[in-house]
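Inputs:
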Amino acid sequence: MPMTLAEKILAAHTSRSEVHPGELLEVPVDFCFGNDITAPIAIKAFRDASAKKVFDPQRIALIPDHFTPNKDIASAMQVKMLRDFAREFGLVHYFDVGRMGVEHALLPEMGLVLPGDVIIGADSHTCTYGALGAFATGVGSTDLAAAMITGTTWFRVPASMKLVYHGQLKPWVGGKDLILYTIGQIGVDGARYMAMEFTGPVIERLGMSHRMTMANMAIEAGAKVGLIAPDDITREYVQPRAQRPYRFFASDPDAHYEIVHEWDVSTLDPVVACPHLPENVKPVTELSTVSIDQVVIGSCTNGRLEDLREAASVFKGRKVHPSVRCLIIPATQRIYQEALKEGLIEIFLEAEAAVSTPTCGPCLGGHMGILAAGEKAVATTNRNFVGRMGHPESEVYLSSPAVAAASAVLGRIAHPEEVR
Amino acid sequence: MMCVSECGNGKTKIKGRVWIFGDDVDTDAIIPARYLNTSDPLELAKHCMEDADPLFPSKVQPGDMLLAGKNFGCGSSREHAPIALKAAGVACVIAVNFARIFYRNAFNMGLPILECPEAVREAREEDVFTVCLETGEICNESLARTYRAAPVPSFMIELLRSGGLMAYVKKRYLSESRS
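Outputs:
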């Protein structure tokens, strides 16, 4: 039977010749992890179950990145739970402040999540690794606890949705615009429970960073995974990093897709998701009257080196608007170092932006850059729900790094062309 | 009127008022991230649904149910969401449908959830509902109308009956490793 990429990975992990959408499977995981918000509950469940060891200390990561560097005593206590657990059970991959990064940027960079893997993470944006051709999905803490003990988890085999992108992208249009456009078209529940597979000539030419941005936000359309079939671009990214063997899978040409969308994106302009749902997508040019108070460039969606380069190309020789606070957060320690070497950090500091050590803080209104009542922010993050970045009466607009940077310079939502 | 006709013989019957919310209720609305520097259920319950309805934590009573539109629980993987609802006293969530991770977490935490668009559409705030979990029969006592929810997959019922995922894992794996 022909199978999709998602079905092939699940079949290979269960030694089955075929699997069908809707089937419930018990599946071994290649890797699992949690953060300082989700892992404490998992650790408590692990201890309550009186488990004596983890299934494999090489295949579990704990990454305190949400409220770190710790914002208060309660967060410090949560992170201490992770640190103590990692020591007690000999976890190889524990990443503390100064050695860490935003989890979904850090794990691919370290070569710990790989093509063909089955991965669960106690964080909804675990779907990011679908960009490498891995079946990776977010779960809750209890699922993580169970996987840390047994090395397995259960899945319902998702039906697949094929998304085909044709044409040539305009300048300043990239992965973030493509995924926001897609969510705008299909809605925040458009791919609920499904595997989204991003395909077509536009995706084949898209760099890994842009691919990760797209897969990262598959969850914002309700999807279980957001997949891109691995190719030479994947190999080039993975080869120098991989810490384990990996495997490329591809959908059969005659595989069954429950839904197929085809779009020519040649005329697509940069887009922005307006409050309070990622599906409220408008062309940036329609929003030029929206004045803003804060810009955040970073997060697991857009905090990679390519994102910082994009932002720097807009900021170079310019200043952040006097009425705007601009926060720039390289997603990992290594990205920070590279940005420093390339002179990007210098550009940001000259522009009067604040540059921070890696943290998820502002994205979820956790700490740093909390918005007051009535304030508006443009952010390269992935969610703009009510109260996401602070006060329930604040507003978050989601965009690419280029649009965020242009908006920071002009003090209102702006197309990058406007500052050239 | 005897609304939930099939609910007897030790089956689980829930009775309470319903609180109605709209479509796409996200996990930041259920429990804002700013409170996630703890996982203490009672602390989380104090802030449950507060960005959607600031009075909710003070008015919800044990046994009450939450009614919502499509895609309930979209967003974060935070298990704090079903934990906060349960600790606030919410005995069941009935929605048009649920987001995937929330669905999984609710069962893993032992929070019953049912999909029933008709029951949601016709309900009014503070109507009294009775629900029989095993049969999926839902009754709006205030309107004297009964509904049938989409059946819960049997694998899930097994999980709920084991007392959630960890109890299931404990039973299955830890007994194997001892033997």
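Remarks. The longest helix of chain B spans residues 165-178. Chain B has a mean pLDDT of 89.
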